[in-house]
Amino acid sequence: MLGCAIGCLLLVFMNMQLLLAYEIPGNISLPEAILVHGSPLGYGNFSRDSVRKRRNIVCKLDEHAERNRQFCCKKCQRGFYKSSDCKGPGLMTECKPCSNRTYIDMENYISRCRKCSTCQEDLGHVAKSDCISTQDTICGCPKSQYQVQAGNTFQCKNCSECQNGRVLTECVGYNDTLCSCFFGFYFTMEDRSCRPCEKCQDSDCEKHCGSLTAPSFGLSLGHSPLLLSMMALLAVGFILMLLGFAWQYWRRKKKHMYCHVTTVSTDHPSSEQLVTAQSSTTYLPGHPVSQLESNEMEKAASESEKHLTSAQNTKLPDCINDVVKAQIPEKPWVLYAVVDNVPPSRWKEFMRRLGLSDYDIERIEMQNDRRYREAQYEMLLAWRERTNQAGSTVEAISRVLREMELSGCSEKIQESLQREL
């Protein structure tokens, strides 16, 4: 048996050698061809050339190589899938839109859309954005929670609170709250909170806390005569300051009382009195008025007009006229009273109307950078120096404010000066 088997193997081997040495024509039909080294006789060269040609196709980013036709086709847009191949090079592939609850979020040439994902409610996920034809469902965590990666999905955890500190980075996405701790506290990554420096026990927190122990003087409130003396002096100084404010308030109020207008004239009755006098004579219906009574009525009316004219032409009290016509004194509080009662948005217009040039205004502004109130004060000083004594008066300021339709500001300035002058 063993000898027969060895003989058969030798016979097969010899036949194979004869077949390899024999040249088979390359134009025989495919079923009759004998495979040599994995390629059908008569088709080997064609197959290798075809593969080489197909590999040489280079398409643009928005195209793809059609496998069977060996040319490039346009890809389908987002939200569409390929329903059939294009008909020629550079032509658009026949595409159809994705159906409900399916999507494709990139340019493609696949034959069907992908199924939309669903958020895992058992892990606390919520839908941040619903699935549409060009985008899958976007899942996230509820408000005041952040995402923690867990394998192929994520879990939701509560955001850390910045107690004893302020929020440096908001809690959003995969990032928990990052806190900047107040003085005397340090941030720990274990529970992402601000702990008191008194609980610091490692080198990391010691770098942040350093030496925060308050200096001890070795003196208590009940055993320190020096501390008691200092507190007594502070209390006395505070009381004296309050008394000084009260004195200034009483002094200003006293000056203001003398500037009130009492009566215009004691010799002439007021307009209300004249009207009352005229209406005191009554006339009954059906009783004609005599000529004498008519003359008396005309005379009374004439007298009332004279008294009214006299009352209207009466001059203001001297204290008010003195304030209006007074020259602006060289006292800072006077100029600051003007500064505080003119709107900042109208200040440059106010100074131009007073006669200060734009050059001086810009120069003073540059000299007092970021100190606008001081610049306003310097502008008034410059205006006062460039104006003679007759021109730098409260009346000039009031006239300009009236032209600017800021009469209320003028009245406030006069009231302020009344209290001080």
Automatic annotation (TrEMBL):
TNFR-Cys repeats lie at residues 97-139, 140-179. It holds the Pfam family TNFR_c6. Residues 296-308 have a biased composition (Basic and acidic residues). Residues 282-312 are annotated as: Disordered. Gene3D superfamilies: Death Domain, Fas, Tumor Necrosis Factor Receptor, subunit A, domain 2. InterPro entries: DEATH-like_dom_sf, Death_dom, TNFR/NGFR_Cys_rich_reg, TNFR_1A, TNFRSF1A, TNFRSF1A_death. The chain crosses the membrane at residues 226-247. GO terms for molecular function: tumor necrosis factor binding; tumor necrosis factor receptor activity. Keywords: Apoptosis, Disulfide bond, Glycoprotein, Golgi apparatus, Membrane, Receptor, Repeat, Signal, Transmembrane, Transmembrane helix. Disulfide bonds join C98-C113, C141-C156. Residues 97-139, 140-179 form the TNFR-Cys domain. GO terms for cellular component: Golgi membrane; membrane raft; receptor complex. Residues 1-21 form the signal peptide. GO terms for biological process: apoptotic process; inflammatory response; prostaglandin metabolic process. It is a single-pass type I membrane protein. Residues 332-417 form the Death domain. It is found in: Golgi apparatus membrane. This is Tumor necrosis factor receptor superfamily member 1A. It comes from Microcaecilia unicolor.
